[in-house]
Write a structure and sequence with these properties.
The structure holds 2 protein chains of 2 kinds. Chain A is of the alpha/beta class. Chain A has one domain: Rossmann fold, CATH 3.40.50.620. Helix content of chain A is 26%, strand content 25%. Chain A contains 6 helices and 11 strands. In chain A, the strands form 2 sheets. Chain A has a 9-stranded mixed β-sheet with strand order 9-8-7-10-6-1-4-5-11, sandwiched between helices. Chain B folds into 3 domains: 113 residues, Butyryl-Coa Dehydrogenase, subunit A, domain 1 (Orthogonal Bundle); 107 residues, Beta Barrel (Butyryl-CoA Dehydrogenase, subunit A, domain 2); 144 residues, Butyryl-CoA Dehydrogenase, subunit A, domain 3. In chain B, 51% of the residues lie in helices and 15% in strands. In chain B, the strands form 3 sheets. Chain B has a 4-stranded mixed β-sheet with strand order 1-4-5-8. Classes of the chains: A alpha/beta, B alpha+beta. Chains A and B meet through helix 2 and helix 5 of A and helix 1 of B.
Chain lengths: 253, 379
């Protein structure tokens, strides 16, 4: 099975982000990391590929930087990567991103495309669905479990109260939630091997896309409101009951 | 922050991988393991799956194939962010394993190394004896060849991972007095005549430490490492990497002390101001940072020199002293800044404070290190 996993390099969440004051675009440092949500997609891809000796191809768009994020996914075990780095794509909206990714995926060929539900820096959460539409295949979204049997894919789709079982024929696009699998750590040997794995780099025009306008602009940005302080429960001997009540309200228990 | 050119992208990826592993698999549990007196044996397996034991070991046995002192330092620095005990326990493979890799027969290597690198076999190094540690040339444990076995008698103490090790690379006397009569045997711990008792320690609680006893323990002769009476050289070759690993661990633990103290000082308010706003506290923090940066820079330089094949025995010895003095200072000052909180179990500074002495004594005491450096420098 030819599996494509969409991955994104993002600034290390451990460091504060900054925005360009003029364009409001995220300032991307040279050193970026693999978006944590993509580790789940890579792991799903690797596990599915292991069943029938399939291949896992990473597809990523954005400034290359030192490529540490993509290398991280290669070190986990992916076979190769396709990277689209084009200055003209700076500030691309979700649809432009999907068009670029779709063109690259179409070019390399696929049986299954795996993506996280949303990136940790952009949070639009619509790229997988747009990708499916552009590729002309079904979108199976918010998978918390993925099984492939022959040419059929079945997922448990996370809902607010439980899950739906969704089945489709391949080829398809699936978006996976955090927790779908336990991502492996890149092994030391995997890290050493990653540097010699093939990485193809394209511009938008290499993929036959000349119009990269996003059709959207960021007019203004404001800081997120600070989180309010939590509720303090004084324990008068019955405090635990109030805590249980609170947890039930939040549907945690 | 611009990286030194000695580091590669692979080094960065190694560091982030180990840091993830440490923060997820080790750090949340280290206090519990410290109280338990050992960490779960499954940790070896997890570390083995990651390839954590493979630096410097041959690819045919599952290793990385090359030795990279910088990678070694990164590993130790990051492991020390969990606890010294866990790091020391895992590291016993890196002091017990190299004599096997460097001097065992192919048969014995094939018996031990793949399992050790996969995390299924634990190796330890048995040098120190109850009669003395630093004076390796005068060790008392004997091995007498009897047919196709060596009959071993004597004891070893302060042996890291001694209670759980499957194989112990052991220094024994096969010849006359002095360094020229010392051999190395790698001894399976399941042989009749071998026994061990656990030792309670000031720190490194999560690492099991033991006294080992050999009473007419018959060890097949195939477990001789190298040739008879060539053991002293094997032991000495091991020390440089052990010291480098300890230096990096001390630098890492010092940094943890600094980070804990800084976070506390920026959060806690006294007399209407943050602790960090009081000059006496600010100066403590800067002094810690200054000493750590100096030790860290020297460590990087030495790791680079070792990678280039330089023999920097004196400098490694001096840097080990520098690093243990830095750790001692940082643990003390962090404890002063944290105040009562540093005296409570479960606090990293409390644990590191207990781990200072083993770093200043183990792997060559500060005094022996200075003496070694003096001899090397021709003073």
């Amino acid at each position: 099975m030819n599996i494509v996993v969409c991955v994104k390099q993002i600034p290390d969440p451990a460091n504060p982000y900054s925005l360009d004051p003029e364009t409001h675009y995220l300032n991307r440092p040279h050193e970026q990391v693999l978006d944590d949500t993509d580790r789940y997609g890579v792991e799903v891809g690797l596990q599915l590929a292991a069943v029938d000796e399939g291949t896992v191809t990473l597809v990523s768009m954005g400034p290359a930087g030192n490529m540490q994020g993509v290398r991280q996914a290669l070190a986990m075990g992916a076979d190769k990567a396709i990277h689209i780095d084009d200055a003209g794509l700076k500030g691309s909206g979700a649809l432009t991103t999907a068009r670029i990714l779709a063109a690259a995926i179409q070019q390399t060929g696929f049986d299954l495309v795996v993506a996280g539900t949303e990136s940790t820096d952009g949070y639009t959460g619509v790229v997988p669905q747009q990708l499916a539409e552009l590729l002309g295949v079904p979108a199976l979204t918010f998978a918390k479990k993925v099984d492939v049997d022959g040419s059929t894919i079945t997922i448990n789709q996370q809902t607010a109260t439980g899950y739906n079982v969704v089945t489709s024929e391949l080829p398809a696009v699936v978006s996976v939630t955090a927790g779908v699998v336990e991502p492996r750590y890149p092994t030391f040997k995997g890290i050493m091997a990653a540097k010699s794995k093939p990485v193809e780099t394209y511009s938008a025009s290499d993929l036959g896309i000349t119009d990269t306008s996003s059709g959207q602009s960021t007019v203004s940005v404001t800081d997120a409101t600070e989180r309010e302080a939590g509720e303090k429960i004084e324990d008068d001997g019955e405090g635990h009951l109030r805590i249980v009540e609170k947890l039930q309200e939040l549907k945690v228990v | 922050m611009t990286q030194l050119p000695i580091y590669t992208e692979e080094h960065d990826l190694f560091r982030s991988t180990i840091r993830d592993f440490v923060s997820t698999e080790l750090t949340p549990f280290v206090n519990e393991w410290d109280e338990d007196g050992e960490f779960p044996i499954e940790v070896y397996k997890k570390a083995g799956e990651l390839g954590l034991f493979g630096i410097g070991f041959a690819e045919e046995y599952g290793g990385l194939g090359t030795h990279d002192p910088l990678l070694f330092c990164i590993l130790s620095e990051e492991l020390s962010r969990s606890s010294g005990g866990v790091s020391a326990g895992l590291f016993s493979n890196y002091i017990g394993g190299p004599p096997v890799q460097n001097a065992a027969t192919d048969e014995v290597k094939a018996e031990i190394l793949p399992g050790m690198l996969a995390g299924d076999i634990i190796c330890a190094l048995g040098i120190t004896e109850p009669s003395g540690g630093s004076d390796v040339a005068n060790l008392q444990t004997t091995a007498r060849l009897d047919g196709d076995h060596y009959v071993v008698n004597g004891s070893k103490t302060f042996i890291t991972s001694g209670m759980r090790a499957d194989y112990i690379s052991t220094a024994v006397r096969t010849g006359g007095p002095g360094a020229a009569g010392v051999s190395m045997l790698v001894i399976p711990s399941n042989l009749p005549g071998f026994s061990r008792t656990a030792l309670k320690k000031m720190g490194w609680w999560a690492s099991d430490t033991a006294t080992l006893y050999f009473d007419d323990c018959r060890v097949p002769a195939k477990y001789l490492l190298g040739t008879e009476n060539s053991g002293f050289k094997i032991i000495m070759e091991n020390f440089n990497y052990e010291r480098l690993f300890m230096i990096a661990g001390m630098v890492g633990a010092s940094r943890v002390c600094f980070e804990e103290a800084l976070a506390w000082a920026q959060d806690r308010e006294t007399f209407g101001a943050r602790l960090a706003d009081h000059q006496v506290i600010r100066h403590k923090l800067v002094e810690m940072d200054r000493m750590i940066n100096a030790s860290h820079a020297w460590m990087e330089k030495l790791a680079w020199q070792v990678s280039q094949g330089d023999h920097v025995v004196a400098q490694l010895a001096e840097c080990k002293v520098q690093s243990s003095l830095t750790l001692e200072f940082c643990a003390r000052e962090a404890a002063q800044i944290l105040g009562g909180a540093s005296y409570l179990r479960g606090n990293p500074v409390e644990r590191i404070y207990r781990e200072v002495r083993v770093n200043a004594i183990g792997g060559g005491s500060e005094e022996i290190m200075r003496d070694l450096a003096a001899r090397q420098l021709g003073i």
